[in-house]
């Protein structure tokens, strides 16, 4: 089942991490289930969790391994945990998992970038070793997100063929917890804020697994400032609220207590930031002040770690983003580990939270072809109903998990899908209608439009509260000496959008040029640092003419791993920073620009 609450410890709740060395075994012929691997792996190796095998191996067939694979670990449950409900919570397992405890199946989950938990109380033995086994699968299809396909090589091996431009890392890449929770427990709670006359009304909606009363208390720097006792919904009001903002990311503490016969039986506390976010005409307002988004499309990606969570990388990335003067990033192209959002709440960063709906566009796989957008009517295929169900499930899990973060200011429901067909509009009309019911703060909903989805042909922008453009004039189109044409292409397209008089904010969510940090060229040439500077200067010169542009999120924060290809030199090199987080020349240009831009 989905697991929206990040594990905490208090008088009622205990947890311990199960990270470390697990046993691992690939199962290319999918014989494990019949072969009893859910009880005992026949010939396992050691594998770190969190981690991803693709970055650790020296063998190509293991790096690109596609199919079933197993993790297994023994753990001890002392009998003093007897009166608690016991769960195992995964920050994520990519892309799908089936979990066994002492050989018994206890749950499964589809989706590789959101947490889930399985209840294990009825399957474990106290005061002795127990065994968890996870069957993982990393195959891609058009029935799940992110989308892709696969081929069978001449040697019989499966090979994933992503419809997206990042390496198909897989495995248990985020933290794993053993949870000991009260039988009657708080499952989740969502908050909304109304600001008026120097007061903040905080409305709460608590989800629990039984019918109970709740005591909700708000603390400002350990001092109680408001309290309410109610059923699942209610509200608190405070005067002179200290709002959460970019320059002052002020956090309160909220405590939810579940009461039974006036006795507290469960408690969940969280840090919250009181702020409002809304779109008014062509502006994005944070606490009723227009904001301009400066920052990045990012990836969870690093040497040796692949996409595995690591708080040193998170801290380094935030330090680099603070240094350069950024205030925002998009979690391209999937919800990131929860720890990213916790830092953003504390550091004062804005996040566009993106569901893994990437690759819903076969033509995107041929970059040379993307501008012809040879639409293959992706949304007309018979697997679309299954895809929509998974897409909606993951939107719900993302919003349930991230709804309370003040740093999250918008939901991105797609990245560069086919967007020029009636069936693409019909598909996303339902997706947006589904999503709009899930966030009581009604944050803006959007998605990013691929090159070729311009004002004359795109059908999805009417669904979006602000418009996100991924544009590569000067790179995939009109690169090198033709950049002189690229500027006019960009202006022509923006003129086209301007003529639609949408009265909505526009954000550039991707623009960039592959650049080798070792390359300097005079005159500048594509792949050189000088060209990356020229490319961005051209965009910034154009942006000045279009007042409805309210954000520039460059692609990408850092170089990152992709599948191999004739246009990838060790991966995608559009980074402002190298993969090991050192600045390219462009970082100094952006720092100068962003520190002046307010
Ligand atoms: C024309 C499509 C551009 C594409 N957009 C999605 C990103 O995930 C890729 O990395 C980026 C690129 O090719 O650099």
TrEMBL record:
Keywords: Glycosidase, Hydrolase. GO terms for biological process: carbohydrate metabolic process; glucuronoside catabolic process. Residues 18-182 form the Glycosyl hydrolases family 2 sugar binding domain. Residues 189-275 form the Glycoside hydrolase family 2 immunoglobulin-like beta-sandwich domain. The keyword Hydrolase applies. Its EC number is 3.2.1.31. This is Beta-glucuronidase.
């Amino acid at each position: 089942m989905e697991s929206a609450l990040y594990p905490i410890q208090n008088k009622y709740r205990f947890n311990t991490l199960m990270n470390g060395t697990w046993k691992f075994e690939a199962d290319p012929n999918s014989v494990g289930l019949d072969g009893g691997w859910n009880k005992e792996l026949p010939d396992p190796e050691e594998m770190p969790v969190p981690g991803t095998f693709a970055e650790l191996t020296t063998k190509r067939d293991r790096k690109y391994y596609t199919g079933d694979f197993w993790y297994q670990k023994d753990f001890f449950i002392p009998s003093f945990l007897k009166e608690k409900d016991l769960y195992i919570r995964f920050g994520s397992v990519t892309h799908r998992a089936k979990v066994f405890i002492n050989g018994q199946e206890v749950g499964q989950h589809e989706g590789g970038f959101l947490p889930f938990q399985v209840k294990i109380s009825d399957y474990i033995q106290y005061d002795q070793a127990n065994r968890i086994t996870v069957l993982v699968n990393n195959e891609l299809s058009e029935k799940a997100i992110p989308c892709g396909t696969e081929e069978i090589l001449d040697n019989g091996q499966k090979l994933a063929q992503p419809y997206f431009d990042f390496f198909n890392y897989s495995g248990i890449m985020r933290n794993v917890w053993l949870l000991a929770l009260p039988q009657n427990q708080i499952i989740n709670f969502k908050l909304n804020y109304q600001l008026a006359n120097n007061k903040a009304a905080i409305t709460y909606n608590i989800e629990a697994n039984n019918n109970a009363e709740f005591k909700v208390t708000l603390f400002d720097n350990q001092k109680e400032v408001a309290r309410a006792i109610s059923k699942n919904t209610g509200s608190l009001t405070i005067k002179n609220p200290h709002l959460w903002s970019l320059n002052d990311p002020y956090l309160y503490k909220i405590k939810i207590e579940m009461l039974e016969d006036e006795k507290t039986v469960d408690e969940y506390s969280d840090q919250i930031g009181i702020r409002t976010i809304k779109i008014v005409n062509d502006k994005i307002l944070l606490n009723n002040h227009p904001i301009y988004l400066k920052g990045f499309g990012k990836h969870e990606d690093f040497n040796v770690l692949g996409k595995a969570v690591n708080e040193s990388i998170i801290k380094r990335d935030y330090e680099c983003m603070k240094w350069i003067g950024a205030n925002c990033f998009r979690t391209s192209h999937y919800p990131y580990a929860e720890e990213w959002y916790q830092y953003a709440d504390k550091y004062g960063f804005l996040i566009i939270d993106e569901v893994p709906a990437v690759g819903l566009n076969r033509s995107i796989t041929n970059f040379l072809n993307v501008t012809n957008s040879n639409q293959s009517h992706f949304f007309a295929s018979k697997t679309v109903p299954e895809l929509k169900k998974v897409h909606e499930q993951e939107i719900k899990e993302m919003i349930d998990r991230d709804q309370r973060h003040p740093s999250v200011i918008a939901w991105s429901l797609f990245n560069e899908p086919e967007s020029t067909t009636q069936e693409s509009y019909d598909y996303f009309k339902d997706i947006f209608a589904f999503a709009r019911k899930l966030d009581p703060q009604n944050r803006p909903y959007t998605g990013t439009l691929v090159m070729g989805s311009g004002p004359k042909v795109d059908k999805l922008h009417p669904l979006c509260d602000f418009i996100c453009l991924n544009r590569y004039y000067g790179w995939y189109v009109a690169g090198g000496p033709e950049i002189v044409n690229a500027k006019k292409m960009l202006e022509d397209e923006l003129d086209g959008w301007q003529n639609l008089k949408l009265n909505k904010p526009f954000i550039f969510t991707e623009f960039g040029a592959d650049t080798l940090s070792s390359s300097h060229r005079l005159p500048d040439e594509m792949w050189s640092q000088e060209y990356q500077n020229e490319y961005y200067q051209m965009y910034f010169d154009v942006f000045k003419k279009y007042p409805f542009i309210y954000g520039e999120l460059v692609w990408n924060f850092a170089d990152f791993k992709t599948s191999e290809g004739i246009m990838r030199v060790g991966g995608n090199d559009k980074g402002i920073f190298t993969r090991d987080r050192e600045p390219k020349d462009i970082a100094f240009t952006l720092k100068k620009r962003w520190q002046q831009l307010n």
